[in-house]
Amino acid sequence: MTSLERDRGASPAARTAATAGRPTGRRPTNDAAATAIVALLTFLIALRPAVDNDLWFHLRTARWMLDHHRWVGVDPFTHTRPGVARVQTDWLAQLGYHGVWRVLGLAGVALAVAALATLGLVVLQRALPGGTRLRAGVIVLTAASSSIFWSARTQMATFVGTALLVALLLRWRRDPDSRLLWWVVPLFLVWVNAHGGVVYGVIILGAAVVGEWVRLVLARDPLPRVALHRLAAVGLAALAVLVVNPSGWRVYGLPFHQVGASTRFVQEYQPPALSDPTALPFFALLALTAALLVWRWREWDPVEVLWVAAGALFALQFTRSIPFFAVVAAPVVARHLHGLRHGGPGRDTVVDRRPAEGPVLAGVVLLAVVVSVAAVARTGPAATDARLAAEFPVGAVAWIEQAQPPRELFNTFDWGGYVMWEAPDYPVSIDGRTDVYDEYLDVYDRTIRAEPGWQAELDREGIGTVLVDPGAPLAGALAADADWSRAYEDPVAVVFTRVAPVPPTP
Fold first, then answer.
1. Residues 441 and 265: beta-carbon distance below 8 Å
2. Is 396 in contact with 492 (CB distance < 8 Å)?
């Protein structure tokens, strides 16, 4: 079968194995070269210093678990929420990041993030419908859209899990007799212990179950009933296995708790804006997906429609959900572009096994050199230290560790994780784990803005030291208050300490 032939009567395995040309000799094929280019471009797009706000509390949590040989129960890192026990769904990824950090440092963590992004998209590319070049192009657009939230955080486990799940389902839909579907259950077991974003997996799998039954009811080339029963059974098993985590059944309520606590205070829980250049690839992908679904409405697939609808709904409401949309939209875009070019449903994967020409292979080598140079430049000590010095209170926290000013500490939201990691003797007032702080988020917001009652709040929490941005309203209020003294200041951070003894905590 050539790349121009359609064989609607062929078996699912035959459609998947469609080839253009035959391999000769030992030279890499065009398909292998395209996969290498996709991997290198994805890796290049994902390269950035590992200095995310949340990385530090991931590392600190992993260190605590290793020191105490158990999962974290009641949170030991904050003094404003005594007795709170966080739902532990990311312990596995935290230990993974910590292990990489111990061996390779922050540069290793940055490379691990790029490797995770590359793994997810290469697996997805191999499962997409369409020809070799088409699949590669769609994945590059997917990478450009998703990269807005590729960072050194445990959410990378959700990105990889989403890509692996979609790839598994795509392959199973082409060959419903295969046993690939059962790999969904262990995938969910690992996922729920690596990141709470496993809820995206539940949505994808649930949409597949509903969509396949809709295909059956509407007689739109449905899968055999036995395959649908198997899909439903796998869905129930995957949902049940989520309880196997340190927090048990509490995981089922985590998405509602986390979103409710975060939407008012965290930028990534706000809708994406057209004025944000980093969001433009997402809007381009969204427009292309919608146009293809409208143009080829006769070839609509209930599963794809549900995937796109759910992904768009989340991504347009929460910027952090853009990678979720990008992954579920990729097979839709690939199938319809393939169908536009060659006619028919466009579900087959066409693999170009012709030997790659010399210029193509030379281009792959050149791209590998570029990526290697970029890896050193973007993730090395110079780039990492520059970002740290510009975005985090490196000098201020070093001073706190040396001078040991009075407890308790009030700190800026974005710096809580860094303080946890670099000054472990000082419990923080707040950090990026919004699901821990609940109503204290409002208290923090009023205090950092120096709204009426801020002095009473600092007294109530027994705050002896304040670490904030010099431009924060609270910094100005403290500078004008005789009860506080500026103890340290640099262009990034300022530290105030009490002149009088810390009042007793009520």
1. yes
2. yes
